[in-house]
Amino acid sequence: MRRFVFAAFAGMSLLASSAVLADDAKPVAPTPATATDDANKQTCKPVMHEGKVLGMACHTQKVWDRMQFENQQELHNMQQQGLTAPPR
């Protein structure tokens, strides 16, 4: 009985803390370039791996938005697969 009460309390604590952190979440869909922004303008961003800058990558804003959207979709799909995978 004590384990159940402790587990329930711990679960409620996690839910409360995740609700507080969820307020800062950004929408999943990328924001399209507006008519005033030049979608063909080249933007360079650093390529990083494990905190080290490996170089620079230059793409248009439209390409950056597409890459961000595809990465978010891939991450979402992997997270959903983890929820539906059979237990070992």
Ordered list of secondary-structure elements with their pairings:
Elements: H1 2-22, E1 42-49, E2 52-60, H2 61-84
Antiparallel strand pairs: 1-2
Describe this entry's structure for a reader.
There is one protein chain. The mean pLDDT is 76. It contains 2 helices and 2 strands. The chain has a domain at 39-88. It is α+β, with helices and mostly antiparallel strands and 88 residues long. The radius of gyration is 20 Å and the shape is elongated. It has a two-stranded antiparallel sheet. The two termini are 27 Å apart. It is 51% helix and 19% strand.
Question: Which class best fits the helix and strand makeup?
Answer: alpha+beta
The count of helical stretches stands at: 2
* Helicity range: 40-55%
Biggest β-sheet description: 2 strands, antiparallel
What spatial form do the alpha-carbon principal axes imply? elongated
Low-confidence stretches: none
Report how far apart the termini are: 27 Å
**What percent strand?**
15-25%
Mean pLDDT: 76
Strand order of the largest sheet: 1-2
Order of helices and strands: HEEH
Q: Please provide the count of β strands.
A: 2
| Radius of gyration, whole Å | 20 Å
